[in-house]
Amino acid sequence: MVVVKPRAGDRHETELMVESVDVMVPVAPGMSAPPGFESVSLPSQAVAYTIHHGNAADLSGAEAVLADWVEMKSLRKAGAMRRIYVKQGKNPKKDITEIQIPLER
Q1: Lesser CB count within 10 Å: N end or C end of the chain?
Q2: pTM for the model
Q3: Longest dimension (CA), the chain
Q4: Burial (CB count within 10 angstroms: exposed 0-12, middle 13-18, buried 19+), residue 104
């Protein structure tokens, strides 16, 4: 999967119940990253994930539930939680976001 993410110096910290979050957007092959972002290829990796349907403003609850599930199952995290904005449009209630936590095998 090829995604774009903010360049290291452009990240903004927010207080969440999770350690950190990488924000990612799938891009078509051959497309360039928008200003302020870089294009990266994600390695094949096991992840815990959930799909959030609805306004991105409500993601923190889904992220907390996923993080709690990973902890409850005694799984080991292998990186920062990531958000992949699968679909965004004029009506935020119809947005789709995949939330992932990379896992150690």
Answers
A1: C
A2: 0.68
A3: 40
A4: exposed
